[in-house]
Structures are given as C-alpha cells and as structure tokens.
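Milestone M4 deliverable, item 7.
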Amino acid sequence: MVDDRLQDSVRIAQLLASEISGDAGRLRDLQVTDADPDVEPTLDGALAYRIVRVREADAADAADGPERREPALDADEESVTADAIDDATTIAEAFVQPDRVRLEFRVGVDAVAEAAEAADLRARPKAVRPPRTIVFLEDGAAVKRVLPALDAASESD
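Output delivered:
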C-alpha cells in the first residue's frame, strides 16, 4: 500500500486541469480557462481556474464527424479570447486552499452532488442564487473520482 499521498492543493489542481485538457472522451467539450499559474493557496481559496463547456459546433459542422472544439487563443496563446468565453458556459471554478481544492459547480448541481457522493467525495450545497454544489478534493486520488461529477455537469443544461 502507498504511504505517501499527494496533498499539495496546487498540484492537485494541476492534475485535474491536465485530466480535463487531455480527455478526448466524455470531457472533450470542457476546457480550462483563466488559469493562474502562480496561484498561492489561501484559507478562503484562491481562484486557480475556471472550467467551461465550449458550445458545440453547428449542426451543419456535425455532419463532418465529431471534433473537439478548441477555444480561440490570443496572440500569446496564454488565455482564451473573449469571443470563446462568450460561446462557453462556466461549469465550475477551482479554488486552492492550503489543504485541498474546492470545486464550485454552477450547473447540474443535483447530479454533481449525487456523482460526488457516489465517488466518496465530500460535497455540500452552497446557499447562493443560483445554487451551487461544492466538491472537495483533498488528495491526488480524488482527481480521478471527480470525473463523473464533471461529466454530470457537462451533460446538464
């Protein structure tokens, strides 16, 4: 059994971003935006990045087959342009705290809560308008377990 567990919140957030960016399957419509490569954990949670669902290609384009739509990058290729953000829906925001990553889901909050609880992740509602679901990632192993919750949010309207 492994005695060492990854508990560095910044590294956990980076692992999750890599999972999202590299998934050509069920999470292919999700993108990481507004990433802060120099983020430092805070007690309240510092915004590391947003996870957005990029608008699907037009039905006419779908006839050519499934494609992964990449958001347009600016000249420096470091951030997503405003046009791409206009075409996207924010699914969740990732915040780093000293001992964990906090994901605040904005869509599919009930489905996300069910998926997170089924994966043995700590989840709770956030009483704001519109409501949100918060899921906590306390170690590196939680990154794989949160993927069904991201999938549930991605598929919600």
